[in-house]
Amino acid sequence: MFVRHLSLTDFRNYVTAEVALAPGPNLFVGSNGQGKTNLVESLAYLATLGSHRVSTDQALIRAGQDSAIVRARLEYDGRELLVELQLNRAAANRAQVNRGAIKPRELPRYVSTVLFAPEDLALVRGEPSTRRRFVDALLGAKSPRLIGVFADYDRVLKQRNALLKSARASGLKSEKLSTLELWNERLVELGSEIMAERIAIVAALGPFVRDAYQAVAGSDQEPRIEVVLSILADHPEADDAEATVAAAAELTREGLTDAFRAALEKVARAERDRGITLVGPHRDDLLFRLNDLPAKGYASHGESWSFALALKLACAELLRADSITGDPIVILDDVFAELDQRRRGRLADAVKGYEQVLITAAVYEDVPPELTAQTVRISAGTIVDASGEPTTPSTPGTPTEPTEPTP
């Protein structure tokens, strides 16, 4: 799969943009703040329904405008696919595929990307929520139906938390909350599926992470990933990742369900006192190890960078191995400036075999020559050619607004 053409209207700092892309490496070059990342961010959004820089859609819509449009013409195995998304400031987002309305959450079925950016260092050094989003994004890319499962779990979690807060305020005991048991069962059903899927995909990802780390860092260090389950902790604030990792490895899907129910019973009093759900996949984490030591707190800056990059390259390899629509589009956002010459060359070797690679850089010379054949220069939200003159759009005209999606 690769993008043949990208069109933006009122997305970030672009009034309009028309960009012709080619298979293989495509390099976007420009000074900081000119809009390079905005281009690749728009494509990544189509695949993940989220931004790697902000948590809401509002920042993606150009200031003063009510909506933004992202349109990508994809090609796979000689077939073309037109994917369109309209982000709305005061209404629901809308989407189309080949001019037919779809629900926006269905877009990841048609677009597959893996993006690596400097922000991904937080995968190793940041909070558990960052690692949860990472593994869930991979699950959604691999099995788009799980996006609906995540949304359902979040809704049930909010309803259950609202009930617990109401009970705390009114002084009701948990055994008198007749509806709590109903929410418990739904929470356990959805949460057990999420935990089982996370455990399975982490196990599948492991060998790819080891290979990718070796490819990037060129060392014989042993990176590992394991799932830390909150339902197996001694208490909600316990720092016993080692114990939960060991116990999780022994659990079947049925065992996960039983353990979740038991954990809810164990923390029932604490949940009533605090008015919040204390165990479940929303409280889980991933444990990254390097030579049997936790990468967080032990890995050097260079090792952390290599680990984070290996995680994303491993995702690309896993998706490539399972995909029926070809390679994912690999996006490297402002990465080469952070790497030394040796690692730049190793990264170029690792990605050059993908069907399409999109790269952003502030300095042209930072990028290995084998990745610069197709170069697009960006200046102040305008696409310019190598001579610095504005480029004539290859498909001129005002984008057609997507129609209302079907219910």
UniProtKB/TrEMBL annotation:
Which InterPro entries does the annotation name?
A: DNA-binding_RecF, DNA-binding_RecF_CS, P-loop_NTPase, RecF/RecN/SMC_N, RecF_2
Region (Disordered) residue ranges read 382-407
Coiled-coil stretches: none
| Alphabetized UniProt keyword annotations | ATP-binding, Cytoplasm, DNA damage, DNA repair, DNA replication, DNA-binding, Nucleotide-binding, SOS response
Binding-site residues, ATP: 30-37
Where does it primarily localize? cytoplasm
**RecF/RecN/SMC N-terminal domain residues:** 3-361
Give a yes or no for keyword Iron in this entry. Answer: no
Superkingdom field: Bacteria
What Pfam families does this protein map onto?
A: SMC_N
Where composition is biased (Low complexity), the residues are 387-401
Compartments where found: Cytoplasm
Q: What does this protein do?
A: The RecF protein is involved in DNA metabolism; it is required for DNA replication and normal SOS inducibility. RecF binds preferentially to single-stranded, linear DNA. It also seems to bind ATP.
Please report which protein family the annotation says this sequence is part of. Belongs to the RecF family.
Name of the protein described by the UniProt record: DNA replication and repair protein RecF
Its source organism is Herbiconiux aconitum
